[in-house]
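Notes to self after the Tuesday call (sharing in case useful).
The group wants a holo model before anyone commits to mutagenesis around the pocket. I volunteered. Ligand is S-adenosylmethionine. Logging inputs and output together so the record is complete.
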Amino acid sequence: MDWIAQINRQRWNALAEANVEYSQPYLDFTLEKAARYVYRYGILQQVAGKRVLCLASGGGQDSVAFGLLGAHVTVYDLSDVQLERDRQGAAHHGLQVTTIQGDMRDLSPFPSGGFDIVWQPYSINFVPSVDPVFHGVARVLKPGGIYYVAFANPFVQAIDDAGWDGQGYRLNGLYLDGEDISLRYPYWDVTRPDGSTIKLNSPHEFRHTLSTVLNTLARLGFIFLGSMGVDEARGIPWSQAPGRISPSQPRRGSIRFGSCVHKYPRFPEKWKEDFQISVDTLEKPYYNMSQSPESSGANECEVTILYLAFNL
Ligand SMILES: C[S@@+](CC[C@H](N)C(=O)[O-])C[C@H]1O[C@@H](n2cnc3c(N)ncnc32)[C@H](O)[C@@H]1O
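Result:
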């Protein structure tokens, strides 16, 4: 284990012990709730019998949802306590869930093509590079398998409420791949059951630029099925899936990273020859969002979700 994994294991254990929202197993889930959760964007269908890897997805939430729907679930996570929550959730619902401790950058415990679905909620930002993770996912997914991945909108990581000037948010940092964002936000405020708040050390958390994420996936043979932006505070999608955009159907298209982004990223017409997707252009040193701090705040559109098919 390198230093990042060692520290983040400790810090995620501490956050889970403090029962942050990502560590509370879905004990109240029913079949209906599980279906609403897993099938919410209309891309996944009928996961019963499918082999699902819940990647860096501990906490007893995703594993419970997929388990209730009849999938064969494996959870792979760094944190002892997060995995304990998956076992707790599984025991509560009478489900068989396999839990394995490990680093998302090393998927060697799993056979090639061993999964129909890899489901990765917000977690890839806890490693400095997407490369080993995406390569591992490409290996363990079967051809045609689906990869769900959530990651921080990298523009939102460079703004805060204080930067609102009436028009937009002025960027407060450089747009750097691999920057350790937790150095700027070193603590999580965690509310305890008695209402008091404690500060816990943030896990190390890194920016991944849009071009790095999208181009790495495209080069590995992933095809974009859809994207959504999620305002974590309200939990609603802010854009619809753009439709299927694939090497075999080259066309101009856009992944709409929200009305928030000045210039929509364009997929090149000659997709086949040129996988480079230019997505990082902002015309001004601004992240222009429609929402002021009073109405919504700088964390609008905080998380981006991609659905991809591997080697279709
Ligand atoms: C925000 S939580 C996501 C899962 C959560 N149940 C949810 O509600 O979305 C991030 C997860 O990533 C895990 N994690 C962080 N770094 C990891 C790594 N290098 N390898 C595997 N898991 C990691 C943490 O232990 C934690 O369970």
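Two things stood out.
The first helix runs from residue 3 to 17.
The chain has one domain: 3-310.
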